[in-house]
Amino acid sequence: MCRLGGRVGPHCRARGCRLRGTGLLLLAYLAYLVLGTCVFWALEGRAIQDSSHSFQQDKWHLLQNYTCLDSPALDLLIRDIIRAYKAGAHLLGNTTSMGRWEFMGSFFFSVSTITTIGYGNLSPQTMAARLFCVFFALVGIPLNLVVLNRLGRLMQRGVHRCARRLGGRGQDPAEARWLAGAGALLSGLLLFLLLPPLLFSRMEGWSYLESFYFAFVTLSTVGFGDYVIGMDPSRRYPLWYKNVVSLWILFGMAWLALIIKLILSLLETPGKECSCFHHSPNGAPSSPSWRQGPERAPRPHCAQLGCYPEGSGGVTQRLEPSAQVARCGTDS
Fold it and tell me: By three-state DSSP, how is residue 16 classified?
């Protein structure tokens, strides 16, 4: 039973509030996906049509200039070029090479696999390599998560240590925590998102905005594959380049995971989602008074009545004896 004396109990009121909040969250999530779909459709639809039309024009101009080449032969040549590009071979000049499947290229592919970036520009072609990739990712992805978790804890401890040192120098504790968090955010932005694009611009010939876009897409593990390092066969890359980028990916993902966790905690803690009102014996609703316990744990009678909101961080409801009511029902 959720009704007591013709009135809805606080447990049922809190459950209804949670259900409404979940429904609104799902609607907002769906609306956000629809918004992204419409924007991508509007921005990329026209561009892909223009690109396809330009490709067809270039194809027919080539057939008109080289009459000895018919359309099926040209289509076969295009398919071979695409297949060789996906396989990672360099086709410029009179010879081919291992290209992206050399040692450093294979190492970078392994990094992009276990970090779940998956640029999509390179994939194994033999069945043996595909089967190995399955088992390699099956063990490597959890291992990567463990490493990222450990690195994230080390970064978090460093921030807490800085906050304690600032607090030990007479700084206000709340202000010290704020300064340490702001310092970690700014230093991470500098080391992982603002300075690395300068290296990518130098080594790849991209603009700074293109390099910044690649940095964020990589660290967020989105990995579209439209920009990937070390793919220009006309450039000579030093051996240390992909090693340094691999370390940057590892530490940058750990830092960005902390930032995303902070944003997630802010989004999931909007404060009091709904208030619990208890009726006094005379029928008038009494507004509850909120108090935070010393151990940040809910009081026994409040836990039974379900009077503390979700995400309140241990903020409990202190009820006067005259405002306490019997338990409205049990949750199965």
Answer: helix
Alpha-carbon gap, residue 236 to 135, rounded angstroms: 33
- Kind and range of the H or E run holding 126: none
What phi and psi, each to the nearest 5 degrees, are found at residue 288?
A: -75, 155
CB contact at 8 A, 245 and 218: no
Provide the residue count of the chain.
332
Q: Is 4 left (phi over 0), alpha (psi -120 to 50) or beta?
A: beta
Place of tokens 């005259």: 322
Report the C-alpha gap between 253 and 160 in whole angstroms.
20
Q: What are phi and psi of 8, to 5 degrees?
A: -75, 130
Whether pTM exceeds 0.70: no
Alpha carbon distances (Å) from 253 to 47, 217, 223, 250:
32, 11, 13, 5
| pLDDT tens digits, one per residue of 137-184 | 999 999 999 999 888 888 888 888 888 888 777 777 778 888 888 888
- Per-residue pLDDT of 24-59, as tens digits, reads 877 887 887 788 788 777 877 777 777 777 777 777
Query: CB neighbours of 231 closer than 8 A, spacing ≥ 6?
Result: 100, 121
